[in-house]
From TrEMBL:
Pfam family, one: PX
Domain called PX: residue spans: 109-225
InterPro entries, sorted: PX_dom, PX_dom_sf, SNX8/Mvp1, Snx8_BAR_dom
Topological category with respect to the lipid bilayer: Peripheral membrane protein
Domain of life: Eukaryota
Keyword Cell membrane: no
Species of the source: Tetrapisispora phaffii (strain ATCC 24235 / CBS 4417 / NBRC 1672 / NRRL Y-8282 / UCD 70-5) (Yeast)
PANTHER family referenced in this protein's UniProt entry, alphabetically: SORTING NEXIN MVP1
Protein's gene: TPHA0J00470
Protein's UniProt name: Sorting nexin MVP1
Bias (Basic and acidic residues): 1-19
PROSITE patterns (UniProt xref): PX
């Protein structure tokens, strides 16, 4: 399905929206500003009568209409050769633009944030966990250490979503777990700490949010954070598009095929998340099996020692000293068992510190893109088409009023101002639509770098399996050579 019922990213084909190119708002999100500016000039009020363009729309529309994108007269004079050259220039501009966006993001770069759980819990009635956050600012090379609780993370996420609704903002782990088992509770707290760490590290690596004032305050403000949070909550936090004009250069390089990629990605992202989660579960099970094998080998090591201690009681050396040779060989076996325990422990560390975190990080990025698409469905809509129809209708009514003596001047002026206001809304919503489009394109481009997490995850998994399987095999071969003279009947 498309991200909207009437998707402004794709051409509308239904009869309801089959319109001439000049008013096909959803196939070309920016209204025909030449036509818009012309009608506004027709409506330009006589200032000598005390009337003004109170919305300052005429000037805005004229500026847009005279941009390179809408200079039809010049465009009609272009030769085929010039069109070919322009296409090449646009491709070069596109490549330069995407290169600039993508080069500033690397999900595999070193983490800048470390989180430690503070053992002592605070609170009188309801105990809560505090986290020590250590952050190294790459710009200033300054380090900071602050203490935050889980609710502070929730607050930060809400602020960032309000300010950057169309950016990939990571998810947070749940606050509580359902099970009451203490062992599960400890495990849950460890997972939550790691997830909070991924949340902050993804934000500090994000090229458009890493320098955000709220994020940096969260990571560096050592004094009472509650006072600062209250101050921020009292402020009106606009989104990042406030007072911002869309880029003509971006519109120039835009093609609707790019947005079709978003719809394709949106249709597949749930499947990829499901599959990747299942792969992650398999790898986590492998890690647990290795832990279990290490535990069993530890038990085996202890049992062999007991066996060595007690077998001489069954086989007195006065009768036959063969048991001494057997026990000596069992000691070598036990030495090998101890080595395999060390190998398993190291393998578990590799899973915990290298393989699993990379898998989790990719899931976080996938989920953040999915949530971006979900927020677009809720917040990315507009009523440009309805406004355009309203303007056309009122323009017709205004034309019919001309030359009619029974029409009052106040009614005529009211209708003119209504048209001006509607066109102001069209301009504002069109501007916002293009800003959203550019923003999502930026996010989708940096998301492309996440594919290297797939290769990195499997590369790490193969390396760990290869290295430790080889080490274990080598230990067995050495042991086999040592036991070649094991006593036999």
């Amino acid at each position: 399905m498309n991200l909207l019922e009437h998707d402004p990213w794709k051409l509308e084909t239904s009869e309801e929206h089959t319109k001439p190119a000049s008013s096909n708002i959803f196939s070309e999100p920016v209204t025909e500003f030449n036509e818009l500016a012309g009608t506004l000039n027709t409506l330009k009020l006589n200032q000598s009568n005390g009337n003004e363009d109170s919305w300052n729309v005429t000037q805005h529309a004229n500026i847009l209409a005279t941009s390179n994108e809408y200079q039809d007269e010049n465009a009609s004079k272009k030769t085929d050769k010039t069109n070919v050259l322009d296409t090449g220039d646009e491709n070069n501009e596109w490549l330069e633009w995407i290169t600039k966006i993508k080069k500033n993001y690397n999900p595999l770069s070193y983490d800048l944030v470390e989180i430690e759980e503070i053992p002592e819990r605070e609170g009188v009635l309801f105990k809560h966990t505090n986290y020590l956050i250590k952050y190294m600012n790459p710009t200033s090379n300054a380090s900071s250490s602050v203490i935050r609780r889980y609710s502070d993370f929730i607050w930060l996420q809400e602020i960032l979503i309000k300010k950057y609704p169309f950016r990939m903002i990571p998810e947070l782990p749940p606050k509580k777990m359902v099970a009451a088992n203490s062992n599960n509770d400890v495990s849950f707290m460890v997972r939550r700490k790691k997830s909070l760490s991924r949340f902050l590290n993804l934000l500090t690596k994000h090229p458009f949010m890493k320098d955000d004032v709220y994020l940096n305050k969260f990571l560096s403000l050592e004094k009472d954070i509650n006072s600062w949070k209250k101050q921020v909550e009292d402020e009106q936090i606009p989104d990042e598009f406030m007072d911002k004009q869309y880029s003509q250069s971006f519109k120039k390089i835009w093609k609707k095929e790019y947005a079709e990629n978003w719809n394709t990605a949106n249709n597949s992202i749930d499947t990829v998340i499901e599959v990747w989660n299942k792969i992650g579960v398999i790898f986590e099970r492998q890690e647990k099996k290795i832990v279990q094998m290490a535990h069993e080998r530890s038990i085996l090591h202890s049992m062999i020692n007991k066996l060595i201690d007690n077998t001489p009681n069954l086989y007195p050396i006065e009768l036959d000293n063969t048991i001494l040779d057997i026990n000596n060989n069992l000691s070598m076996v036990n030495s090998n068992v101890k080595k395999t325990i060390s190998v398993y422990d190291e393998e578990c560390k590799e899973f915990a510190n290298s393989i699993i975190p990379t898998f989790k990080k990719y899931i976080e990025i996938l989920s953040s893109l999915k949530n971006l698409f979900e927020r677009y469905k809720i917040m990315g809509g507009n009523n440009i088409l309805q406004l355009y129809k309203h303007v056309e209708s009122n323009m017709g009514r205004l034309e019919n009023m001309k030359g009619k003596p029974d029409v009052s001047g106040a009614e005529y002026d009211r209708l003119k101002n209504t048209i001006l206001y509607d066109k102001k809304l069209i301009l504002e919503q069109t501007n916002r639509l293009w800003l959203i489009r550019e923003c999502i394109m930026e996010e989708f481009l940096i998301f492309q770098k996440s594919q290297f997490l797939i290769s990195s995850s499997f590369k790490s998994w193969i390396r760990v399996n290869s290295n430790f399987t080889g080490m274990e095999m080598n230990n067995w071969e050495v042991l086999m050579n040592q036991l070649i003279d094991l006593p036999s009947p």
